[in-house]
Design brief:
12 strands
Length: about 600
């Protein structure tokens, strides 16, 4: 059939071009041109998301090494170090327990949010351009990638109109919680696999429901391939961000129950096969993840409990109808309703809440709407924590989270982050409403999209605030550290890195983690009775030098302090101790180190002591 015949028979002219022109010309260029023409709207939407993400993160460019996210520089330092350690996998130097921090015990990478999959995937960028470039790139990629993934799910699985899908996906990728978490929490914003997980679950459900007939060989094959695919994606997501996977699993569980009650005939037909497929997926995933999860909870330097108080990290009820301070029309005064700029998870604002609720009410007879509404209500309620907080004051009313507090795995999730699951659920409701309106005659065709668009404008994000950060010492950037410690050895910076001041970890990051550090910023079993804690115990010499750096007072050093200094250096396995000229009270630190270790050696802009 010719191109003209297809067009005359009612086929899409763009599709006709895509089928006919390459056959006629046999040209690769023609095939690409047809493909671009066929998907020009999708490509435009994807490009718009990329440009928006680039605009939001433009403060980190064009020199990521000299710029930092103003609200959370400590966490950015930590994630850049993670990326540097992950990138070493390309050099064959990688394990779930790294010796490049907290020497000599090391750090359990599974216990920490080390975004291993992202670090390995972007390792070439890290090794060529540095971890700060990878970090800045991932902040933008996570936002745009998440929005694009949801857009594809809405258009391909829900078959929604592109305008509806773009509006909903924009909320999923650039909603207040996502932009807020972009302040250094890469493990929370890397959500572009969540729509893939949802698609595989939907595919599994469709394969499990053949209608009035029984399952045939094709259905069973689809069930199996969907289960295998789901297991594979879940395994990857574990090494991207376990908390996001946990939130997705809880939300999908609630939605599955609600959907089953809304469509009991589907539940009767599909439940046995669907449950079987999910069990296959879970079994396959556990085969792969069994050892890493054991290592996380029971391996060296692993922890089995959460370290963050659910009472402190509970969402304020008032924050739900408040506009995020990181939105264009937001007010900084509302920042008091949460724990910090990285946790504006619930700040959807009254206009968006009201419009979303109206859309849910309008479409209330659809099972998917029932499921999304139930998921949003449950996860929103869980975000309130063990006790409902209103305007900063804990009240007498217990929150639903109190029923889950203390349970394994659940205890490691911050209550207020359950609100992140509301974004894609609200986005789905808006997509369904706009799509239905666009297919309807009359005023509703314009009224609903206009109302949704206006509501989304109230949460339109502003660029992430950034600031300059101090330059690294020449001792590091010039590679002079190699005159002090061999690659793979331990360099003890003075003062040592701590969770509140992890800046010396930038030294190791700039050196591609070729040397280890004592102490540092990480999660490990160094709390009371081996419970989870941030950082580790300070050795006596480290504590002494930290006090000098803080106060500038030089202590009296005797033989006991010198003996302890040698013992601490031996404990760390340190080859070298170094203090740079930009250290706080650098001269006082140098004189104290001379008393502890003897005369130092000047290397570039640092004083060093071989120990």
């Amino acid at each position: 059939m010719t191109s003209a015949a297809r067009t005359a028979s009612g086929a899409d002219p763009d599709l006709a071009v895509g089928l006919a022109e390459p056959a006629a010309t046999g040209s690769r260029t023609a095939r690409w041109r047809a493909l671009l023409l066929r998907h020009r709207v999708d490509l435009t939407v994807g490009l718009a998301f990329v440009l928006l993400a680039s605009w939001l993160t433009h403060g980190l460019w064009p020199d990521p090494g000299a710029r930092v996210l103003a609200f959370n520089p400590a966490d950015q330092t930590l994630y850049e170090w993670f990326l540097a350690v992950d990138a070493r996998a390309l050099r064959g130097d990688f394990g779930l327990l790294t010796d490049r921090l907290n020497a000599p015990q090391g750090v359990n990478l599974m216990t920490n949010t080390t975004v291993i999959a992202l670090g390995v995937l972007f390792a070439p960028v890290t090794l060529l351009l540095g971890a700060p470039v990878t970090f800045a790139l991932l902040v933008a990629v996570n936002l745009a990638g998440t929005a694009i993934a949801w857009y594809l799910l809405f258009t391909r699985t829900l078959h929604a109109r592109r305008l509806a899908a773009a509006l909903g996906a924009g909320l999923c990728g650039f909603g207040p919680g996502m932009v807020s978490q972009s302040n250094s929490h890469l493990h929370m914003t890397a959500q572009w696999l969540v729509p893939v997980i949802v698609w595989l679950v939907v595919r599994l459900l469709r394969a499990a429901d053949p209608g009035p007939r029984s399952l045939d060989r094709t259905d069973r094959r689809r069930l199996l391939t969907s289960a295998v695919g789901l297991a594979a994606v879940v395994c990857v997501q574990v090494f991207v961000g376990e908390e996001v996977l946990f939130l997705a699993a809880v939300t999908l569980l609630v939605m599955t129950v609600a959907y089953g009650f809304a469509d009991r005939e589907l539940l009767r037909r599909a439940l046995p096969s669907f449950a079987g497929g999910m069990m296959v997926a879970a079994g396959l995933a556990l085969v792969v993840l069994g050892y890493p999860l054991w290592f996380q909870f029971a391996g060296p330097q692993g922890v089995a409990d959460g370290m963050f108080s659910p009472h402190y990290f509970s969402a304020d009820l008032r924050s739900w109808w408040t506009i995020s301070p990181l939105s264009v029309v937001g007010d900084d005064a509302s920042a008091r309703l949460t724990t910090g700029p990285a946790e504006y998870n619930t700040f959807l604002g009254a206009p968006l809440l009201l419009v979303t609720a109206a859309c849910a009410l309008w479409l209330r007879r659809r099972p998917l709407v029932v499921a999304c509404t139930a998921g949003a209500l449950v996860t929103g309620a869980l975000s309130l924590g063990p006790r409902v907080v209103l305007d900063g004051e804990p009240g007498p009313v217990p929150g639903p989270y109190a029923l889950l507090a203390g349970l394994p795995v659940v205890d490691g999730a911050l209550p207020m982050r359950f609100a992140l699951a509301v974004l894609p659920l609200a986005g789905t409701l808006l997509v369904l409403a706009v799509d239905r309106a666009l297919r309807a005659p009359g005023r509703v065709r314009l009224l609903v999209p206009a109302a949704v668009g206006a509501a989304l404008l109230t949460v339109f994000p502003a660029p992430l605030p950034t600031a300059d950060r101090p330059a690294l010492p020449e001792f590091i950037t010039g590679g002079h550290w190699r005159d002090c410690v061999r690659p793979g050895g331990v360099l003890a910076p003075v003062p040592a890195a701590t969770p509140k001041e992890p800046w010396p970890m930038r030294w190791a990051t700039a050196a591609d983690a070729e040397f280890g550090l004592p102490e540092g910023f990480f999660i490990g079993p160094h709390g009371r009775d081996g419970s989870a804690a941030m950082g580790t115990f300070k050795q006596p010499t480290s504590a002494l030098l930290a006090d000098v750096a803080k106060r500038g007072d030089e202590p009296v050093i005797g033989e006991e302090q010198r003996r302890q200094a040698r013992a601490d250096a031996d404990f760390w396995g340190a080859s070298c101790v170094a203090v740079t000229d930009d250290a706080p009270h650098a001269e006082s630190l140098r004189r104290t180190l001379v008393q502890l270790y003897g005369p130092g050696t000047r290397i570039a802009d640092a004083w060093t002591w071989r120990v």
